[in-house]
Amino acid sequence: MTPFLAELIGTASMILLGGGVVANVVLKDTKGNNGGWIVITTAWAMAVFVGVTIAGPYSGAHLNWAVTVANLALGKLDLITSLSYMAAQLLGAMVGAFIVWVVYKDHFSRTDDAGTKQAVFCTAPAIRNLPINLISEIVGTFVLIFTILHFTDASLGGTDESTPIGLGSIGAIPVAFLVWVIGLSLGGTTGYAINPARDLGPRIMHAALPIRNKASFDAAYAWVPIVGPIIGALIATTMYVAIY
């Protein structure tokens, strides 16, 4: 297992289960139809748990461009390694989204609303207000990265410095709770992408797959869950360095 493969498989597993719960809740005639926000946020947290468990020992389990950018900014990763992690995360997200589509293909066919089908793959704002939507993604990702840095700092948390820095350095259970509370508290505005790869990879798959009556790629919004998390990660790392 290489770090690249670990990031790919870990991210694919996370998206398979995270996208899978959205499909189960929103698509027509599923067993979990109308399960609600608590079901979605809980399963997404557990999806992160699974991804971290798989990738943690080999790559540190970044699973997220924002985590990788934070580590690059802190000098814990070089540019080439960072880009390889980000490529693996994007590919993994695409693979996971594709498998969700295969598993729920019959239910996609029975669902008429284009926005509902797109929601299985990527995020969208509850109220479209791009500046506020951007702030929502920045704040959610700030909480994610700022907390991760506190857990992974050897001087603060007793982490062995040889341990790969990433979500896996926190431990799978604590990071699941972190993602869960972000979703419950801050996810109602944009669907809390807080991860560019998690949004962009499945969004690309949605555009590529032969889905009847589907929504557009929505380039006018698609940059928000990419730029917002990166800004949030950089603010978190800058503040962390300034404080400590």
* CATH homologous superfamily identity: Glycerol uptake facilitator protein
Distance between the termini: 35 Å
Cα shape? globular
Whole-number count of domains:
1
Question: How many beta-strand elements?
Answer: 0
Major sheet details? none
Low-confidence stretches: 154-163
Number of helices: 13
CATH class descriptor? Mainly Alpha
Average pLDDT value? 93
Structural class: mainly alpha
- Work out the helicity level: over 70%
Task: Look up the CATH topology.
Answer: Glycerol uptake facilitator protein
Key terms for this structure?
0% strand; 13 helices; mainly alpha; 244 residues
Describe the overall structure.
There is one protein chain. This protein is 72% helix and 0% strand. The model is unreliable at 154-163 (pLDDT under 50). The protein has one domain: Glycerol uptake facilitator protein. By secondary structure, it is an all-alpha fold. It has helices at 3-26, 37-59, 65-73, 79-103, 105-110, 114-119, 130-152, 154-157, 167-170, 172-186, 196-208, 219-222, 224-243.
Topology:
Layout: H1 3-26, H2 37-59, H3 65-73, H4 79-103, H5 105-110, H6 114-119, H7 130-152, H8 154-157, H9 167-170, H10 172-186, H11 196-208, H12 219-222, H13 224-243
Helix pairs in contact: 1-2, 1-4, 2-10, 3-4, 3-13, 4-11, 7-10, 7-13, 11-13
